[in-house]
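Standup notes
- HV: blocked on the assembly model, inputs below
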Amino acid sequence: MPIDPVLAAYSDRFYLGAVAVYVLAMFLHAFEYVGSTRPVRAKALVGAGAEASAVDAVEDTDNDPAGADGPSTPKRRSRGDTCGRMAVAVTIVGLLVHLGAIVLRGLATERWPLGNMYEFVSAICFAAVVCWLVVLKKSPSLRPVGAFVLPPVFILMFLGGTVLYAQAAPVVPALQSYWLAIHVTTVTIASGLLMVAGVASILYLLVKFGRAGKLAAKLPPIDALDRLAYRVTVVGFPIYTFAVIAGAIWAESAWGRFWGWDPKETVAFVAWVVYAAYLHARATSGWRTTGAPWINVLGFATIVFNLFFINMVVAGLHSYAGLG
Amino acid sequence: MTSPPTAPPKSPVVAEGAPPPPGQSPIRRVLAFLRNTWRGLTSMRTALILLFLLALAALPGALLPQNSLNQQLVEQYKTDYPAIAPTLDRLGFFDVFSTPWFAAIYLLLMISLVGCLLPRNLDFLRTLRAAPVATPRNLGRLPHHAAVTVDEDTDAVLARVRTLLGGNRLTAWRTVERDETGGVRTVSAEKGHLREAGNLVFHLSLVGLLVGIALGKLFGYEGQVIVLTGGNQFCNSSILGYDSFRAGLRVDGTELAPFCVQVNDFTADYLPNGQPDTYRAQIGYQTAEDVEAGDTSNWKPYELQVNHPLRLDGARVYLLGHGYAPQFTVTWPDGQQRTGVIQWRPVDQTTFLSEGATKFERPGVTDPAQRQDSGLAVTGLFAPTSSGGDVVTSIYPDLRNPEVAIDVMRGDLGLDDGRGQSIFTVDQSKVDSGALKQVARANLTPGQSVTLDDGTQVRFDSVTSWVSLQVSHDPGQESVLIFAILLLLGLGTSLAVKRRRFWVRLVPAGDGRTEVRLGGLARTDQAGYGEEFERLRAELLGTAPDSGGPDSGGPDSSGPDSGGPDSDAPDPDAPVTDATGPAARDAAVPDPDGPAPGPPEPDAADPDAPDPAAGTVPPDRRPTDTSDSTDRGET
């Protein structure tokens, strides 16, 4: 299978670009916290980035700002608020660039672009950002959480671009199956969603135990964070379950058994059990608000552990990381 | 999985579960103990703890090497950590998934699950028949509510309510109409029982899944065999045909499907960097039926590939791996010739540098003492693409420039000792004792030969390749797949369907006018009922509400989710803006188990509570209540 080096190079550049744009969005989100409440002319600030303003304008028209604006007058926004809105717009731009990187990678290698750790991590971040924007579309008042969703995305993408980076290349025979597209894609979507849920639960715990300091004032109320975590998990968990089942079906035709307690399978099972425990804890008195968020964080930690430790340290059949 | 102990304290079940008063007969005490144990085991809290234990117990299976995956790694670990390895071994940490403690955890979990499901199943059946609960007295305290006076009489509005809530079997609400004093009519409607059904399907599928897996462990088997290409055959007729075989607990090897496989050719394509691109084995096969019918000349062709196993006679044949088998010919001084070809094993999976030992016995020698002196072994390394030079190593996995670097050993091979020995090496103890001596060392390319001191010639002829096949049989896997699909459907249903209620109270307002009061409550964690309630309200009362409608913006006008189409599923900001009154907040999270913020008024927090004004409550309402209070105990 030929590799198109030009497309692969463009994909890499898009990836870098996406990281840069996400970093910009991250800073804008951070400014949201430090921004004064003094109203300024929104137009002047938005003019700073042409692309941003275009997307922002679209946002404005189809998503009436009444919900997010709060007490300020519709025409004038506080500086923090403007930064927040720009952060969202910039995130959307970053997402488009990121999409370009993934699509180009697929075109360059003429295969589904989920063949190694680099591509996998990139897609998880993509899924997380999409999930975050969908959440934001439904509940605009959660916007300040964005300052905490983007850092893990940035960290993962940084690791992806440095430690985990792999040249565009075909995959080994075991990966040449349409189940790759089904299994790995659903795993990435689920991981992205569970990452957002994990961030929400971490924030919930930080605020609850007073570790968020002054940030807590700008964050959504803690039951909103808790509910964000729950609702995203409730979508992510069935997708994750499907992914594990799809993996088992694939393993049956690739490795000769549907389940063999390969380290990756084992930790996937552990994560599944932890999330099952989370849902049960939500329905158990005394656990609903005290234990459940911890379990959700634990579940996300298990997913991360499975992603990095199992792939890179423990040998197993899933070692397709392309790390040599 | 919920069960009595997590039910509200008012439930009579908890009182029953209390320790019996002293002075009871021992039998009753034993029964009470058993009952309490059973209740404890089937409680949600126990299930949670068991889930954690299961997760914790599975972890060593990922972190420590496992015998079931790689025995060499286990041995390596034992040498590396001699201090703790014996203890770990005794506790079964190298076979985590077949230890009694792991089995104990998942069996207890399954018992807990079944014990929790059975009562739940019964409850569910009862709720299916029970009438929707009476209309709460004060609908205004529900998270979703509206009140409008319309220019119609009660009967006309009632007729419209019936049409609105009716429909086909799938879409209709379950409704019951009740009369209150003063000509007041009420309608209680309920929907979303599928949630509970999905929940049950999910948990029952888990049990079915486990049974299917157990079936596979009992009656399944897995065998590996290496077959040289070039028309060599392998038949699944007995365990003896395999190089390694893992039998299920009830498999004695007498009932294998006797199909046969012939390996004709194997090709591997590699990328320039040595990464494999495709593996293909051209095979022929005969089904058990063909073999039994005596039709042994026809081989049906099949191209065996990774990800494309051959499925026949309830078994699957997989292409697991491949390697090279160098062929050597030994010509003794008396002119006798023997040709040997046997698989050598790859020691480097990227370059396929292989090692092995091809062993010869001198033909025509029958005297045991002479036999012990005349054995020959060709051992060493094989490189499919040799680096050249004195020290042969392989630089590419494909067969481009094959070369062997061999030691020829002569003496006692130990083949007569009656002990098994590796086909890949010579018996090291014979080398150590001097019974087997190295007599030549050479690097050979195909066609080249080396001559020993006694004039015996050893020639490297050519290379064939071998494939490693796995035959698997698992009678449980179809049922596992079916239960996995059911599990997923059940899970999706139970997480997506909202259990919700809708009440209408029609109060005659004189002059043929009727005051219509609506109330709605979603009895699940997920909100998002507001949109549907809003649609029902709009269809019943028109789009422009007058007083108290959800769009009027008053603090107690609407529930958390009535904010329009955007507020569907994740709407976590809802309580910030809407849930201003304590009643609204309590009702928005209708979890009787959860710590409600502040003591709610009974009729606000629990609309099921019998409303004195709503008339009599049927005695069979208790099961409904129990199931309601537990209906969030689901995965």
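- HV (later): unblocked. Chain A has one domain: 5-36+79-313. Residues 36-73 of chain A have pLDDT under 50 and may be disordered.
- Next: hand off to the docking folks.
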